Amino acid sequence: MFHAVVFAIYVYVLSRLVLPLPWPLGWKLLAALILLPLTQYHLILRGAFGSLASPEIPFAALAALGGAFGAFILLAAFLLLKDVAALCLWGMHQAGLVAAVRLSTPGWSAGLCLAATLLAAVGVWQATRVPGVREVEVTLENLPPAMDGLTVAQLTDLHISRLFPAAWTRAVVARANALSPDLILITGDLIDGTVAARAQAVEPLRDLRAPLGVVAISGNHEYYSGHAAWMDKFRELGLRVLNNEHIAISRGDASLYVAGLTDTAAARFGDPLPDLRRALADIPPGATTILMAHRPGAAATAAAAGVALQLSGHTHGGQILGLDRITKAANGGFVSGLYRVGAMQLYVSNGTGLWNGLPIRLGVPPEITRIVLRAPRSFSTPLPPGGTRGSSRPVL
Q1: Lateral strand order in the sheet of 183-187
Q2: Which of 172, 327, 369, 373 has the most crowded CB, counting CB atoms within 10 A?
Q3: Max avg pLDDT among 21-25, 34-38, 202-206, 283-287
Q4: What are 21-50's pLDDT values in tens digits?
Q5: What is the pTM of this model?
Q6: DSSP state letters, 53-108
Q7: 131-394 CATH
């Protein structure tokens, strides 16, 4: 279905960009043939380089192919915006409000192609650089005073692969450790590829340090690459893996609980589905609970179950400002930042890395998130209801 949609976009680009050009038919056919492979980027990765989730090709080739596909998608979006603008201008001209304006010219076409190419190149750089740190302060109503100021470093969607190799992982680990967090939580999609293919690239995760532990859950991509083997590998690396279970985090006499869910992708492989009731079982009533759930869409269910804070990823923040509206609609209205859902707060990270399927970011930077937990104070300002971005800011 996805490939059919991309092919339909290809037909649209041909009809709105290539066919109107004042070129001989042979040159138009050549342009159509050059564009065609870009539309089948995902099929090429799967058929020629091993798999869609983890194509085993060098970084430069993967970045170039992904950037070309991104340029094609951006070009299609620009053409659509141009056509909408042309239609509006035509209507205004018919009403006598403006003079006639032609937007379908070779100059416009060349400009759109150049803009798409340059932005895609910037987008690949933005996606694959070592992410900065975003700081978020969250007040939790039942947080014990002894836990006030506890810091959590959230990593998510690292997608360690040929696109994000060992050197990148090592730099991410160093930046996370430099925050001196009390607790590190990794909310899924750590890898792309098998344990054998990624053994060297994930090795730096062994060096993550936090006095209260390093905890991880599965995302959908762990299932595509051998879930059981990866769970064993994560544990061998020193990560505490939560599959529909929880642990207590203590500071002095005070405690909070961290629960973790599996991912709905488990259904395709006969593995246990996310089970919130099981994950929260036996947590004392009224205790502060942080839920790690890779996808944010079911946040309302977690809020109804009494969770204080849910940490999620999966959306990559929408990747491209403007197109993130599509991602938001597909994830229960959540895409990036801090939200209030009932009495619960939800933080959706932009992600630390990115899947190679569309390896560009524009206006949606990757992040390592430093979350500071606060106990209630009389002067605290409550988080506005609904889909707010909340009090967060980049610090690196």
Answers
A1: 240-241, 214-217, 183-187, 151-155, 367-374, 132-139, 392-394
A2: 369
A3: 202-206
A4: 889 999 999 999 988 888 888 888 876 776
A5: 0.90
A6: S---S-HHHHHHHHHHHHHHHHHHHHHHHHHHHHHHHHHHHHTTSS------SHHH
A7: 3.60.21.10
